[in-house]
Design a protein that fits this description.
- The chain has helices at residues 3-21, 122-131, 137-141, 234-243, 250-276, and strands spanning 24-29, 32-34, 51-56, 60-67, 72-78, 86-96, 102-112, 132-133, 161-162, 177-184, 189-195, 201-211, 216-225, 247-248.
- The chain is an alpha+beta fold.
- It has a 10-stranded antiparallel beta sheet with strand order 2-5-4-7-6-12-13-10-11-9.
- The termini are far apart.
């Protein structure tokens, strides 16, 4: 190999090397649905048949849904639409208008990034699950009256107000459902309006993002309803926030990390000691 070829080879190597060293590693798996309630004790490990490790541009996540019919679902994927090193929780309560049937979904998502190993792992989601406390189904059901459709729904019962630029206001003659979204963070953002789309269900969704490193939280509540009063008013949404608040025990989260590291160090020490013997 002549010198010029060797220099070219080294240049290509140095350019390519960071791509593999600093690439984010993530588990990507087929979404698995279970006919039972999964928890931190029976959480299944990803298998080679269902999963593989890929390189991601932004990050990874692992997501679990629990449904009130007793079923559960788990998904590993890349590039989460949430901040890294965060835990996102969701409570969704909905009522199908034609049947009057209610359904609930609870979910938890852990978002992360790492160039050493796939961080959207069982261990991380277990710590998140053990550190998060959801309100009971009985408490969630207390707000079912907000989702009842009145026979004489009129657009005039919808509150329309906003302090957000991208909050569209609908002509009240075409209104089908009152909607509101409030984001509670450093500055409260409010968008209350109505939708002209044909709707099949009334609902509320309570989403909380816990930023673990910054020890902060952002809460967002969305509601769609057809009640006789201004069901999308702030008072109702504030009440959902107050009564259905989800808590994260950060001390418990970090304590479980320390415990796992201690166990790993103990295991490595034992292996090294046995090798010496």
């Amino acid at each position: 190999m002549i010198l010029s070829d060797f220099i070219l080879y080294l240049s290509i190597l140095f350019i390519s090397y960071p791509k593999y060293i600093y690439a984010i590693q993530c588990h990507v798996c087929i979404t698995k649905v279970f006919d039972h309630h999964i928890d931190s004790n029976n959480l299944p490990f990803p298998t080679e048949e269902d999963c593989h490790i890929v390189q991601a541009h932004f990050g990874c996540y692992i997501h679990i849904d629990w449904f009130d019919d007793g079923t559960s679902a788990i998904n590993y994927n890349i590039d989460p639409p949430v901040p890294f090193n965060s835990i996102t929780t969701v409570i969704e309560r909905r009522m199908t208008i034609n049947t009057g049937e209610y359904a609930t979904r609870k979910s938890i998502r852990y978002g992360c990034k790492s160039n050493r190993t796939a961080c959207n792992s069982i261990d991380h989601i277990k710590r998140a699950m053990n550190s998060v406390t959801f309100p009971s189904l009985e408490k969630i059901k207390q707000f079912d009256s907000l989702l009842i459709s009145t026979k004489h729904f009129t657009a005039s019962s919808c509150l329309q107000t906003s302090n957000m630029k991208n909050c569209s206001q609908t002509n009240l003659t075409n209104c089908q459902q009152c909607v509101s979204m409030i984001r509670y963070s450093d500055r409260m953002n409010v968008c209350s309006s109505c939708t002209s789309n044909i709707v099949k269900r009334n609902y509320f969704i309570y989403r909380t993002i816990f930023h673990i490193n910054m020890v902060t939280r952002v809460e967002e509540i969305t509601i769609g309803c057809q009640n006789g009063e201004p069901c999308n008013k702030r008072k109702n949404i504030d009440q959902i926030k107050q009564d259905l608040k989800i808590t994260l025990n950060l001390l418990k989260f970090y304590r479980s990390i320390a415990s796992a590291m201690k166990s790993t160090c103990l295991l490595l020490f034992t292996i090294g000691f046995l090798r010496i013997l």
